[in-house]
Amino acid sequence: MAQQADIQTNDGSKVAAKNTEMRKVSGRSAVSQAIYFLRRWPLVPLFIMTVLLITGIFAPQLAPTDPISQSLSFRNYPPTWGAARPEFNSPPNPADYDLTITKEKSAFSRAKKNTFSRSVYILGADNLGRDVLSRVIYGARISLKVTAFALTSGIIIGSLLGILAGYFGGWTDEILMRLVDVWLALPFILIALVIAQLFLTSGGAAEGVVIFLITLVAWTAFVRQVRADVLRIRGQEYVYAAKVAGASSLRIMFKHILPGTYSTILVVASLRVGQLILTESTLSFLGAGIPDPIPAWGKSVSDGRQFIEEAWWISFWPGFAIFLVVMALNFFGDWLRDRLDPRLRQLD
């Protein structure tokens, strides 16, 4: 009876606390309620992540034109913002398209300029006359593809090593942790440049090289965090009960301990995605990542740095896309960590 009374009291206190919270929220102004709702739920980061996912999947349908199609007539062409340009209102002369009659490339170029679609060059053109908007859209697909493969490999490798280090301890733990320390001390950028140049000059697959390079930095964060969880979980009573029942170490690690680390792996992965996208962009910017003509955000930023004064849009839009995506992923990772950590959940 006393236990039932305690349960009823706890339920009543929870309901009362929830009602008090609802009264506090309802007593605020509309602006305050909107700010509170945006702080409580990551709507803006989720919206940006959804746009990134849709853009990456449906890039061929969303892009106005081929991202690698060049037109030197529109070299460093300014953004049209989707509006009709007065200089394009005059109808072209059909004779301008017949090179056997005009024999002049300038007339042919003018004819091309007078008939291009209004959906092209909304965000301008780069130094080779390629549509910036199309390259930004296809760049989302490249970032998602490279990051997905690298993150999956990092989760598998890092979680496996973290479980081994935390469960067995002793020399196994010492060797694996020192391996992580040595790995983090290596100059990754220099190693990436050397490996990329080695594979690219020998005809290797560029995307495979980039995925391999990013995987080199993706697994370390998982090792430390998963190991810390395993050190806590392996002392639980149900783990001891499994040992007494005769369960093998492999079964204990993957049946009883691994499920307890899922929340940590999810939080680390959400925080790591933005860093991996930034790493891929950095490698592409330095020439060790995705090469031309494949559109990548980092490579697009690098293409426009020589024309930053006369054609700022070449570097600005892919750089702005990197900023939005990384910021959204970091905010979402922080929110997810607060929701999955019971100690931080009480601070809401």
Report on the structure:
The chain has 348 residues and is mainly alpha-helical. It has a domain at 132-345: Orthogonal Bundle (MetI-like fold). Helix content is 70%, strand content 0%. It is built from 17 helices and no strands. The chain has helices at residues 2-26, 30-40, 43-57, 59-62, 99-102, 105-113, 132-168, 170-185, 188-201, 206-218, 220-233, 237-244, 249-257, 262-285, 297-304, 313-340, 342-345. Helix 3 crosses helix 16 (313-340). The longest helix has 37 residues, at 132-168.
Topology:
Blueprint: H1 2-26, H2 30-40, H3 43-57, H4 59-62, H5 99-102, H6 105-113, H7 132-168, H8 170-185, H9 188-201, H10 206-218, H11 220-233, H12 237-244, H13 249-257, H14 262-285, H15 297-304, H16 313-340, H17 342-345
The count of strands amounts to: 0
CATH superfamily of the domain at 132-345: MetI-like
Spans of at least 5 consecutive residues whose pLDDT stays below 50 are 1-11
Task: Name the helix and strand elements from N-terminus to C-terminus, one letter apiece.
Answer: HHHHHHHHHHHHHHHHH
The helix fraction, in percent, is 55-70%
Distance between the termini: 33 Å
Fraction in beta strands: under 5%
Compact overview of the structure:
By secondary structure, the protein is mainly α.
Comma- or semicolon-separated keywords:
70% helix, globular, mainly alpha, 348 residues, MetI-like fold, single chain
